[in-house]
Amino acid sequence: MKINVITIFPDVMTGILSMGMLGVAAKKSLVTYNVQNLRDFTKDKHRTVDSEPYGGGGGMILMVPPIAEAVEHLQLPEGSPVILLSPAGKRFEQRLAHEYAARDQITFVCGRYKGVDERVRELVITDEISIGDFILSGGELAAAVCIEAIVRLKDDVLGNKDTRESDSFEEERGFLLDCVYYTRPVEYRGLRVPDVLISGNHKEIEKWRKTSSITRTEQMRPDLLNRKN
């Protein structure tokens, strides 16, 4: 899988993509990251990527030529997703992460400032994604969130496949939250690990975890219990 990121802060992205699970995936050659500096596609000596919006108003807007040319430089295969991180985009969820994980190549365009020239959407963007109803200064951190959710779904990225299959929000689990977990010590400050978890009875442990998952979802995210798709 190849993941392209177009940004004016390439050092931010290369740093994140070299760490932890994302770095391991690259070292295993399970994913290739290509971070492009948007300023490399400018024509003036100041490497300008933004300008004031026509019609006035506060804030600066990323111009269309650098972004369009950066995307075209990639020579993407037909149908390859080009994703703009945007508050107007559809909410990024686990199901969408699965859809992107099945692709051979995806591209993220990280906005900055007040937004992007509308012609960017018309010329090169195929998808718009939001990670929540709040505003960031740019799309880099949002892209990193999406990339991690996508890459961890690729086969052999995680050391234990069961880790992924028991995750919260997986459709196969009915979109429930994951169960609660305990580890050593057995007792701490009067709080004890439930006896069933140290009983060695795997059938009862699995039953307990399913109940825990439902109970936790009822308490924390009851909206998920009625979700159909």
What report would you give on this structure?
With 229 residues, the chain is of the alpha/beta class. The protein has two domains: 2-151, 3-Layer(aba) Sandwich (Alpha/beta knot); 166-226, tRNA(m1g37)methyltransferase, domain 2 (Trp Operon Repressor, Chain A), CATH 1.10.1270.20. The protein contains eight helices and ten strands.
Question: Which helices and strands appear, and what pairs or packs with what?
Answer:
Layout: E1 2-7, H1 10-17, H2 20-27, E2 32-37, E3 50-51, E4 61-62, H3 64-73, E5 82-91, H4 94-101, E6 105-109, E7 115-116, H5 118-123, E8 127-130, H6 140-151, H7 161-165, E9 187-188, E10 191-192, H8 202-220
Helix pairs in contact: 4-6
| CATH fold label of the largest domain | Alpha/beta knot
CATH superfamily of the largest domain: SPOUT methyltransferase, trefoil knot domain
Order of helices and strands: EHHEEEHEHEEHEHHEEH
- Which runs of at least 5 residues are low in confidence (pLDDT < 50)? none
* Mean pLDDT across residues: 93
The shape, in one word, is elongated
Give me some keywords for this one.
single chain; 229 residues; alpha/beta; Alpha/beta knot; Trp Operon Repressor, Chain A; five-stranded parallel sheet; three-stranded mixed sheet; 8 helices; 10 strands; 18% strand; elongated
